[in-house]
Structure formats: structure tokens, C-alpha cells
Amino acid sequence: MGCDIITVSADTKFVHLAWKKSEKELAGVRYPMASDPTGRIGRMFGVYDENTGLNLRGTFIINPEGKLLNSEVNFYNLGRNIDEMMRKFKANIYMTRKANEACPSKWKDDGDKTLVNPGAKMVGKVHEALNS
Amino acid sequence: MSEAVSGLKLGQIVPEFELETYDPVKDDFGKFRLQDQIAGKRWTALFFYPADFTFV
After folding, report:
1. A residues 17-36 closer than 8 Å to B (CB)
2. Which among A75, A121, A126, B37 is placed 20 to 30 Å from A55, CA to CA?
3. Do B43 and A77 touch (CB under 8 A)?
4. What are the structural domain ranges in chain B?
5. Is residue A132 part of a domain?
6. Hey, is A55 helix, strand or coil?
7. ipTM
8. Do residue B45 and residue A85 have CB atoms under 8 angstroms apart?
9. Which residues on A lie below 8 Å from B9 (Cβ)?
10. Residue A124 domain flag
11. Which residues contact A124 (CB under 8 A, 6 or more apart)?
12. pTM of the predicted model, to two decimals?
């Protein structure tokens, strides 16, 4: 699919290594774990909390041209849904291939119903478009 | 001196940046560079979280 996940926290790379090796829940982790101890990148994305020195739970999807296409930020106590992140990844990649289609709220994967050529003719007729 | 930055806006081109990493596949330290992703024409998801050795 040509996409990479990178996790980021304010912990050093040494802590990432130690955590990966000791926590069995991370046994399947294959993605790079990045370290942002000064908060420079966290601040750039608007998730660095100056009071705690920690990052909020933010996920950002960047396309191959470097454009930021998606952002989701949760407070500390709410975990993100990985299925939703994959859905957004897939939707963004699909819409890059099919520039005239939009992925509606129930879209989950390639093959699901999309809105084709949304435009003046679809105004007020989205129900028909989704159910045709 | 730094500007108060509330975060990047959607649709904005993300400035190039680099972060040190631990790579579990190589079991070694490395570097993540946004410019490498763009050069390789790859999508990127950045997943920020508060701290290692915590729960969720």
C-alpha cells in the first residue's frame, strides 16, 4: 500500500528500545518508534502539552507529496481506534486514484459505495446517489 | 524565541523534519526523515502518544 506508520513520543530512543523489549503487548510492532524529547515536532503538529512535557494522542496522515490530509487528536484518556486510522488511510489512498469520487461515512474499503462526481446534480439527492 | 504555533493546518505542506528512532525490525537506532518518505512516494501516518510504559 506504500504507507508507513511512525509512532512519536517525548521518550528517548533508549526508552523505546527498553519498552519494546519488555512489553509483550508490543511484540508485533514493526514500525519505527520516533523520539521527540524537546517537543519540537509535537509543537509543530499542535499536540505537545507544555504543562506535562507529553504529547496528546494525535494521528496525522501525510500524503506522498508531503501534504497533511488528516488529523485526529484525543485527550490522554481516550485511545484511538486503529481500524478507523486504517479506514482513513485506505480512503485517502483510494481517493488519490479516483479523484472524482468521495468516500461517504459508511465507506470502509475499496469496493464500498462512493459518491461519484459530487456536484450540482447531486445537491439534495445524496440519498438517491448512495442507494442507486 | 519562538512563535506560538497551534499546529499545522490540513492541506498544508508539512515542513521537512527529522527524528531519531528505534527500529524494531533492525533492532537498532535510526532516523526518520519526512523527505525520505516524499522521495520514496510513500504515505505517512504519524502517531503521537503521551509516554512509553503507560497504558492504553
Report:
1. 17-20, 23, 26, 29-36
2. B37
3. no
4. 17-44
5. no
6. strand
7. 0.90
8. yes
9. 68
10. no
11. none
12. 0.90
Nearest residue on chain B to A4, judged by CA atoms?
B44
| Residue B3, C-alpha cell as written in the block | 512563535
What is the rounded distance in angstroms from the CA atom of residue A130 to the CA atom of residue A132?
6
Residue-wise pLDDT tens digits, B1-56: 344 446 899 999 999 999 999 999 999 999 999 999 999 999 999 999 999 998 76
Residue A130, in any domain of the structure: no
Measured in angstroms, the CA of A28 and the nearest CA of chain B are apart by 10
**pLDDT value for B4:** 41
- For position A1, what pLDDT does the model report? 59
- pLDDT beneath 50: ranges in chain A: none
Residue contact B42–A16, C-beta within 8 A: no
Cell numbers at A74, concatenated: 484525543
> How many inter-chain contacts (A to B, CB under 8 Å) are there?
176
pLDDT of res. B1: 38
Q: What is the domain range of residue A29?
A: 7-100
Establish if A123 belongs to a structural domain.
no
Q: Based on the structure, what is the number of domains in chain A?
A: 1
pLDDT at A2: 83
Q: Which chain B residues are Cβ-neighbours of A14 within 8 angstroms?
A: 22
Q: What is the pLDDT of residues A42-78, one digit of tens each?
A: 999 999 999 999 999 999 999 999 999 999 999 998 9
In three-state form (DSSP H/G/I as H, E/B as E, the rest C), the secondary structure along chain B is CCCCCCCCCCCCECCCCEEEEEECCCCEEEEEEHHHHHHCCCEEEEEECCCCCCCC
CATH of the domain at A82: 3.40.30.10
